[in-house]
Amino acid sequence: MNFQLETDGANLLCFLFIMQLQCKIVILLHVSNINSARSNVQTRKVKHNRFKLTAYALFKDKKFLT
To answer: Which top-rank group of organisms is this from (predicted)?
Structure first.
């Protein structure tokens, strides 16, 4: 299974924990901070780092990679 999601750090950790319960292995192919493109914008708001995650999962009940 190949999937992507966009989330913040806390949800990313929860997501990875859940995926570890469901999957035999989870390989992170790409994790990038998407705030880097917006870093030149000056603001006084507290920014939460958001990450784009591309992960590859091999499920326990599958003998092939999809």
So the answer is: Archaea
